[in-house]
Amino acid sequence: MAKAGDKSDSKGKKGVKRKATAEEPQEAAVAEDGATESGAQPPKAAAFPPGFSISEIKNKQRRHLMFTRWKQQQRKEKLAIKKKLKKEREALGDKAPPKPVPKTIDNQRVYDETIVDPNDEEVAYDEATDEFASYFNRQTSPKILITTSDRPHGRTVRLCEQLSTVIPNSHVYYRRGLALKKIIPQCISRDFTDLIVINEDRKTPNGLILSHLPSGPTAHFKMSSVRLRKEIKRRGKDPTEHVPEIILNNFTTRLGHSVGRMFASLFPHNPQFIGRQVATFHNQRDYIFFRFHRYIFKSEKKVGIQELGPRFTLKLRSLQKGTFDSKYGEYEWVHKPREMDTSRRKFHL
Amino acid sequence: MAAVGARWHHVWVGTETGILKGVNLQRKQAANFTAAGQPRREEAVSALCWGPGGETQILVGCADKTVRYFSTEEGRFQGHKHCPGGEGTFRGLAQVDGTLITCVESGIVRVWRDSDKEASPNPLLELSVGPGVCRMRQDPAHPHVVATGGKENALKVWDLQGSEEPVFRAKNVRNDWLDLRVPIWDQDIQFLPESQKLVTCTGYHQVRVYDPASPQRRPVLQATYGEYPLTAMTLTPGSNSVIVGNTHGQLAEIDLRQGRLLGCLKGLAGSVRGLQCHPSKPLLASCGLDRVLRVHRIRNPRGLEHKDEPQEPQETKQASPEDTETDELWASLEAAAKRKLPDLEPPSEALQTRRRKKQRPGSTST
Fold first, then answer.
1. Which tens digits make up the pLDDT trace of B260-315?
2. Do residue A329 and residue B363 have CB atoms under 8 angstroms apart?
3. Neighbours of A285 (CB within 10 A)
């Protein structure tokens, strides 16, 4: 439907407010090529050389107009197809085939053999006897120590304070340049169960080390997208002292299970539903999103939520067996970008 | 666990929950064997070795100081022997001439009479090799000779039939350029065949070769790899190289003639706990804390052959392929694998560049 490019005049423009529209019929009659029909008819693709494309037109304005015309045509055809499909669907009624599901990266996820089957006894036994067993058997209740890297700036300090309001039974201590390997035995002797260290770089928090204390695994996360309370729009009032509920979403693989259990062991067992507060760790595509909300049930089916509290995103860098010992410790899982990030559809958590 | 099925397992892996797994690589299946029917953490497998008489019996050293006997023919545990003494888990297990040699972490090496049904309380021989032992290894050529090494416990070679003193006691290397003492942490030991030499890999990422036949007690060759402690080591068939693994899951092949790095193997995500090469074919089985058993092809080309996901943190392994039947199975495994080049000469320069990974979806059945 494109016109002959080399000698085309403004006859190619349909419905464009140009002064040439009045002259079109005359120009059509005068055309040297004779390749066009009479200008009264809408100019359609008549004898163009085959293999011609709009991009070969040298004149930018004409090329642009031809292109916009072509685009409008495409859009019309697309709408027509959609309408037709919709009509067919309505005509068939109940017998219509189900709507095709669009492909997303989460849909196309590569089959992962480590996804835990809920009936797997080996994994169940492993989890029943691992380092978190004493928490899940209700023998210990969590006591958290939150600290930062040395000489933290304001943002990090405020994040620590806000985290300590979100996590019950947590204490913030200033890191006075002490070595973690020396802090850890002291924490163990004072009955702390977890240690959180927020690492800071260039005045923003960018890393999180979560170490389960008696002998437990240490997880090292990259932290991004940190929003403090005052940066959250339409937030609610400050969280209260009630113990929140926890939601852990989408931790399906064996590694995901371990990390999920680590997060679960930060919070005490019995949530106080009066407080209506909930902390969510949502894993999607190996990124863990942390949010803290207050909810209220307006009716049986409708809930309103208010976001309180800080929000941040975590990505697991390594999971080390034993307490923090990055040099000589044994790693259960290490993120290796050149080996593990080759496929966009493969995730590990 | 059918009786016939127990013979067709190519690789045996021990886990931290006390389950012994036999993996059939051709059918890509794993079978679990437990002594008590239920996994128990007290029975965490810390050492594995072949029993007497070919590869029909496996001796499994558990964390509760017992050695269990497992028969591959029948596919079940036959008996156990309690081996008390010393503290810590087993770091080495060996058998010779109807006796059992055990070594625990606190440095007590004991030789027991191998009557597996009754627990004879007194060992035949007891040696103390020093605290902090990380590995005891038996010389396959001279079964009475064992070597021990550990953290701040230098390499010592003992002859169990000889005197109470070690046959060879290694000396630490010279002080480094700051005149500081170089710490010792021997994590794994291997005897080199057809010579008296030993290779050790250390927690300070060094690979050292000692030669007791030379007057020099210090290492003859030292090579370093990486920045993390090396935890496991195995000799490659034929050629003079070893493959080491560290706590980050990096596997590397190191040539012992020059101390050069020949190439790396990728795939593991967790600390390497066990490595074993096939005695004749260029295949390597590796297991680690990331709960996956992998079989790698070492050369022509270097890559991943097979991956199996037993879902348990794995500790030790034994590769079994000596029967003729399993040789045929290994052969068919090779035929099934995609090979790019049929020539057999190791392209040494190409090894550095070609690190192709061929992955096959392993299937689990537990």
1. 999 999 888 999 998 988 888 888 888 888 888 888 888 877 777 777 776 666 66
2. no
3. 13
Compute the distance between CA of residue A185 and CA of residue A179 in angstroms, rounded to an integer: 11
Query: What region, left, alpha or beta, does residue A100 occupy, with left being phi > 0 and alpha being psi -120 to 50 degrees?
Result: beta
Helix A254-264 / helix A121-128 crossing angle, nearest 10 deg: 30
Does ipTM surpass 0.85 in this model?
A: no
CA proximity to B54, closest of B323, B277, B309: B323
To the nearest whole Å, the CA of A326 is away from the closest chain B CA by 9
Chain A hits for B292, CB-CB cut-off 8 Å, are 114
Q: In chain A, which among 27-66 make CB contacts under 8 A with chain B? A: none
Quick one: A187 and A82 in the same domain?
no
State the residue range of the domain holding A306: 108-341
Are A331 and B311 inside 8 Å of each other by CB?
A: no
**What is the spatial distance between Cα A314 and Cα A256, in angstroms, rounded to a whole number?**
13
Domain extents in chain B: 170-302
pTM: 0.79
pLDDT > 70: percent of chain A: 86
- Count Cβ atoms within 10 A of the Cβ of residue A181 and give its class: 0-12 exposed, 13-18 middle, 19 or more buried: exposed
Chain B residue with minimum CA distance to A116: B311
- List the CATH code of the domain at B170-302: 2.130.10.10
Co-location of A327 and A214 in the same domain: yes
Smallest Cα distance from B127 to chain A, Å: 29
Of B269, B357, B366, the CB nearest to A122: B366
Across the interface, do B311 and A114 touch by the CB < 8 Å criterion? yes
